Structure formats: structure tokens, C-alpha cells
């Protein structure tokens, strides 16, 4: 079993009167983590488990009042609701449980997307929930504190970080797992769940985004390329973000005349999924997108590291009209931290003159030998 950093973070918050929600993509280990946490809390009392993929389990909780819920729960001290977004009354159910049991019972809920779970609980659980995001396995979790070997790092950039992909021994097994994940991701969670009818257009958009990682993305250009409306592009991208397939970085700007402010960069939460979308599992020495892969990997790994270690920051990229660029900008504790990602050490760059104009700002080039302390 891969030890997940979130486990101890979540256990520390147990029995403090809040519903603990674990969200994240499919197949990243949310159920395994929740069950592991419930096992760790066994000294508190019995655990009651509901799998909302099962209609029989949903019927036990669906639209039930407090008395019915109390009867179902009995003397249990830990309530685990898996795939909570499948329960149409999830918000009201969790509110009733949180208000009645407070610190006496711990409720843990998992959800595979934000498309329904957080929307359904946003208002009803105000001040009553703590949300955690479990990502594909992080570089820190893979390395266990040691230096990541070159072959392992190459595997992460080509095949990604899903638990079932990491534990697969053969390359073909990794590829087959990723193809199945891609189908589950895009068809089950997006097409079926959202009732989409034009699957070809949607897949073409996903592929176009996959080819543009590390580059600025214009929704207007995508609209023209795919011959679909601008608002349709926006809606599809929003759905992909809600499903934990992609995320975006806005541009950092303080000088509206000199710095670009309307573009954004799109990254994939997992490079294995990205490479499956474009069907490219070539080794790094046979790829022309190595720089983009490294940048995507570093941006998402830094996101995981910050979240797991409670480092609060706004994140951006930075670029001026004359082409000066910083891959990742973190705005935290009143300071600016700029990071440039280079695969080869000889690609070290000097601090950009225009970046120096931000007084007190920090700048660092991150190569594979500089990961320690940054993402692990």
C-alpha cells in the first residue's frame, strides 16, 4: 500500500464537529484512504459504511429525516459514505448528521468530482465541513523522502501517477490501465454525467488542450479551430476542471500595459491521462514535448506539496508582451516567488531583468536534481 500524506492530516481533524470530505479524480485511492482512516479510528467505535454506487445503500440514506438516520446509525461512531455525489439529498443528509451528532460521530464522505458533491453541500454545510483533495500519487509519496531515480522519474512523466499505474510492472499493463482510466474519466464522468451529445467535439477539445500544455491557451483560437462557440469552449473546460482532468493557471499581472492578462495555461492533473489522450507513450529521448511534460509535472507536484503541507499561496504564470516569462509564480506571505522549470541543468537561465523589478521577489530554476525541498 502506498502511504498517503493526507491520512495523518485528516485523522488529526477527526471528531471536531465537521464532516470530512475527500474529493478527487476516480481511481486515485479515495476509498482506500477513507477505509484506512476509519480503521485508524476504530478505537472510537464501530464504522458504518455506505457505498452510494449501490442503489440499496442509496435508498437507506436518500431523503431520510433525522429519526430514520439515527435508527440506521445506531451506536456507530464513524460513518463512511463513498461516492457521496450519487446521493441526491447528500447536502441535507450531511447537515442533519452534523447538527445532531456534532463531535460524537465522525462522518467521512468521498466524491469523484466536484460536479455535484460540493455543489450539493456548499450551502447546507457552511462551517460544518472540511474538504481535502486527494490527487494521483505525489512525487513525495513515491520517493518516501529519497531521491527519485532517473528511470522512475521518466516513468512518472510518461505514464503518470495513478496508483494502479505505478504498481503495474510491465509497460503494456500501464498503458492498458491508462486507456481504461481515460475511458472511465471522459465517458463515464463527463459524457454520461453531463448528458453530452457531441462526444467527438469534446474529445477534439481535450486533445487540443493536451497538445498545448506549457503554452498559453486562447479560448477564441480553440473556438475557431474546433468550429464551436466560445461559450461552449468555456463550458467544456469548466467541466474538465470539475472532473479533475485539467486545471488552469491565470497570468500574474500588475502592469496592465506591459503584461498579458487575458491568457491562461492549461495543465493536466496526471500526465499519463494526458499522454493517453494523444496516444503517445514514447520514452523521453524520443519526444519533442519533454520541456512541456517537465513543466506540467512540476506545476502539479508543487500544487500537491503545498496542499499536503498547508502552504497557502495563489499561483500564476508570468509573461510580458516582449516574451519574458516565468513558469510558476507563487504569491504567499506578501512576497512573490518565481520558478522556472528546466529539464537539463545546462539550461539554467539568469534572473529576468523585468522580474527583478518586483522588489524583494525570489527566483529559482528547478531541474530534476533540485526537486528536494520543492516537491518532496
List the topology elements:
Elements: H1 6-11, E1 19-23, H2 30-40, E2 47-51, H3 55-61, H4 66-73, E3 78-82, H5 90-101, E4 106-111, H6 117-121, E5 129-133, H7 139-143, H8 150-159, H9 163-167, H10 171-194, H11 199-211, E6 216-217, H12 219-226, H13 230-242, E7 246-250, E8 264-268, H14 271-277, H15 290-308, E9 314-319, E10 325-332, E11 335-341, H16 353-356, E12 362-366
Parallel strand pairs: 1-4, 1-5, 2-3, 3-4, 11-12
Antiparallel strand pairs: 6-8, 7-8, 9-10, 10-11
Parts with pLDDT < 50 across at least 5 consecutive residues: none
As laid out across the biggest beta sheet, the strand order is 2-3-4-1-5
Could you give the order of the helices and strands?
HEHEHHEHEHEHHHHHEHHEEHHEEEHE
Give the proportion of residues in helices: 40-55%
What characteristics describe this protein?
single chain; 376 residues; alpha/beta; Rossmann fold; Arc Repressor Mutant, subunit A; 2 domains; 5-stranded parallel β-sheet; 4-stranded mixed β-sheet
What does this structure look like?
The chain is an alpha/beta fold and 376 residues long. It has two domains: 6-133, P-loop containing nucleotide triphosphate hydrolases (Rossmann fold); 139-370, Winged helix-like DNA-binding domain superfamily/Winged helix DNA-binding domain (Arc Repressor Mutant, subunit A), CATH 1.10.10.10. Helices cover 42% and strands 17% of the residues. It is built from 16 helices and twelve strands. It has helices at residues 6-11, 30-40, 55-61, 66-73, 90-101, 117-121, 139-143, 150-159, 163-167, 171-194, 199-211, 219-226, 230-242, 271-277, 290-308, 353-356, and strands at residues 19-23, 47-51, 78-82, 106-111, 129-133, 216-217, 246-250, 264-268, 314-319, 325-332, 335-341, 362-366. The strands form three sheets. The chain has a five-stranded parallel β-sheet with strand order 2-3-4-1-5, sandwiched between helices. The protein has a four-stranded mixed β-sheet with strand order 9-10-11-12. Strands 6-8-7 form a three-stranded antiparallel β-sheet. A hairpin with a 2-residue loop joins β10 and β11 (335-341). α12 packs across α13 (230-242). The chain starts with 5 loop residues before the first helix and ends in a 10-residue tail after the last strand. The mean pLDDT is 90.
